[in-house]
Known about the structure:
By secondary structure, the protein is an alpha/beta fold. The protein has ten helices and ten strands.
Amino acid sequence: MMVLGLESSCDETAAAVVEMGEETRTIRSNVVASQIDVHRLYGGVVPEIASRAHIEAIGGVTRQALREAGVTVGQLDAVAVTACPGLIGALLVGVNFAKSLAWANRLPLVAVNHIHAHVAAACLCEPGLRPPFAALVVSGGHTCFYRVTSWTDFAELGGTRDDAAGEAFDKVDRVIGLPYPSGAAMDRLAAQGNPGAVALPSPALAGDTPDLSFSGLKTAALNYLNGVAQRGETVNRADLAASYTRQITDALTRKAALVLEQTGLRTLVLAGGVAANSHLRAALGEMCRAQGCRLCLPTPALCGDNGAMVAAAGYFRAERGLFAGPALNASAGETLPDAPAQAGGWPTGIA
């Protein structure tokens, strides 16, 4: 099945063509238009600017994805699009473009949950990966554990009660002067410091729960920086980065181990933008080896937002006949909008 995946939930306009089948997981193209240079001026994503940039980019990105894949729109079997969660204005651009493209070409349309798509990215790198398994999605907006019983059935087991891990990184990264986006710079800086140099609280909540809270860790780091400034001292940025990173990775690793123990699952999938962090990948890898479990990781290029992951998730929904219709709308929340395919109008299956 040849699936076009479209992604516009935040600040990446992405399109990809993925060839999917029972034993096939081939990325034919994967094009991403970044808005980093625009949002760098503001130190973060400005939703209105992001939406306008998606409008400008989505047509060209889609044409490029089709051209690089060597296919025409008529050779596609389905169009998949991120419908939730995300910035509502940004999502609406992708959803309405996908609806128009699918309707004009009589193609089945599939609505995709952005978080589920991040998890589906792992199947593009691990062809033998099959549910059930546990998944940890870590990004700028999400930090959650899931039991995945099928590629379309996710049960949330727990996660952060406030800030996401990626947001916690971003806030401190900005204060210590790292450039936006700061993930890679923070990763490198943490490798140069002493992870035991700065005493910081763990974001892992006590008890047999997979829940976390990153707000206290973030506040403690900011208070430390303020104290250093008031004493007229110089901050050792590498030590703070190493200490801060260790608390986050240790907490996520401890809770991941707890989830594997409580569920009895033997496979863990790490996904989301923060999944590219080398310290987190190493810590989870060591834990899984110690417990005799399998760790599945998307390549760093597939950890961030991209169209290939949307196409993969769309394929699994299409397999189950979970198509959308003309009434499909975007949703900022994590539940897919209820917009089933309309009999007699929109195509309801794969020809």
